[in-house]
Amino acid sequence: MAEAGAMAIPTQTGILGWVERTGNKLPDPVFIFFYLIIALVLFSVVAAMSGISAMHPTALDEVTGNAQRIEAVSLLSPENIQRLWVEMPTTFTHFHPLGYVLVVMLGAGVAERSGFFAAGMSKAVKSAPKTVLTPVVALVAMIGNHAADAGYVVLIPLAGILFAAAGRHPLAGIAAAFAGVSGGFSANISPGQLDALLFGITEEAVAASALDPSWTANIAGNWFFISVMTVVYLPIIWYVTDKIIEPRLGPWTGGATAGRSADDASPDPAGETGELASRGLRHAGLAALFVVGLWLLMVFAPGTPLIDEAACEAIPAADCSIHAQLAPLYRSLVAAFFLLFLLTGWAYGRATGSIKSHRDLVEMMAESMKDMGYYLVLAFAAAHFVAMFGWSNLGLISAVHGAAAIDSTGLPLPIVLGLMVVFTGLLNLFVGSASAKWALLAPILVPMLMLLGISPEGATAAYRVGDSATNIITPLMVYFPLILVFAQRWQKDFGLGSLTAMMLPYSIWLMVSGTMLIVLWFYLGIPLGPDAPVAYVMPAAMP
């Protein structure tokens, strides 16, 4: 990583050059939130003085029995000033994504630092037959986005080495792995820390809107969708790599180690296999089976702690769903992933020697929290922006008027979702952080789409499609310079424009296919996950 930061990165020209220059002029996302808070305060004062309002879609006025009028509230009112200072600790600590992400990352930090993630990815791709090397690399890359940094630092350079060893162009391997890890960032076969992060923000947006107080986040709410994304993206990355990118690169004649020098200090995970690593992976597999068995026991054993058997007692049997009884199971998935990552990482570390005592385990957990330092600062700013948006009523007012404006255009709802994907992809060129973008967009988009009949899970799914597709072509993506370093190991004159041009076909194909997928998904009405319909019906109005 240090090498990537030290290198002089060539400047791009054209449209992407403008994106790079414009994006570099933007302040840090933390300060973007602070500037937006200042603008929000000023706008709330003007809106309150102007009498801007909307009719609440679900609340009735107790006196008249008509829809309750929601008026803009100044954030400089005595009540809101007091609320800001008095509730500041609560506003921060009750920010839903905070607890979800920190809990999962406590376990994921152990799995990463023990070497489990790196060894698992290395073992998977090194065991692949040469004939299916591309799809295996792409699949492991998409699954490997659970491993965060390890996916970039371990798998991408390893893919280049394996392609070269197979007599194929190493840059094609780097491209396939980069497309999977970053372009397929939201695609996976199971939920993980990204789901905890995004659904935490979605839950915060729903709560701030007060449209549906009973709605709670389920981090498996996009499970079916992201699994199908993986199936759809896999042949696309395979096709683009083998039929578009590799033919353009031409035949490779440099050998399996060409382009590497003796003083090359950038990460090289070529030795992440061997008998010791295999032993560690076997132990980690047993630990994973233990966690799965434990959760099955809590579902099916007497007492069923993760099944709410009384959930249907107060409602007619015809209206009851198995998902209502499974609500505790869904809400336990954050803890399940924490324990899964923690125990598999610990088992691998004990078997390989990277964890020698409980103190090493605690140190790894502490180190993972140190890595979350920037996220904590960002979460502090985002939490206050989202909360103050709710206090001013501007989020709900904007959502009501925005929904009415979209409804008046007559656009089909799937097309609305498709446009949201494209908008998110364009915004992603300038603001790289997935959590920062969603914290900015969710307070308006989630309630607005709810009013249009699209569930919070549907809004989250559409967002993550757009957020992934353009990661691989923006030079503002934090790992972009590092990928360039890996590519220059094999081709010294490979520049920033070369990397963007190589990844552009992936970005276009992933954007088009992802947009088509979300549009088709809504048309078919397929659940996005367990107890996660794509359509949404507003609750009945209540006084």
TrEMBL record:
Source species taxonomy: Bacteria, Pseudomonadati, Pseudomonadota, Alphaproteobacteria, Sphingomonadales
Keywords: Membrane, Transmembrane, Transmembrane helix
Protein name: AbgT family transporter
Domain of life: Bacteria
Pfam families: ABG_transport
Coiled-coil positions: none
InterPro entries (UniProt xref): AbgT
Record's keyword annotation contains Transmembrane: yes
Residue ranges crossing the lipid bilayer per the database entry: 30-52, 98-119, 219-240, 284-301, 333-351, 372-391, 411-431, 438-456, 468-487, 499-524
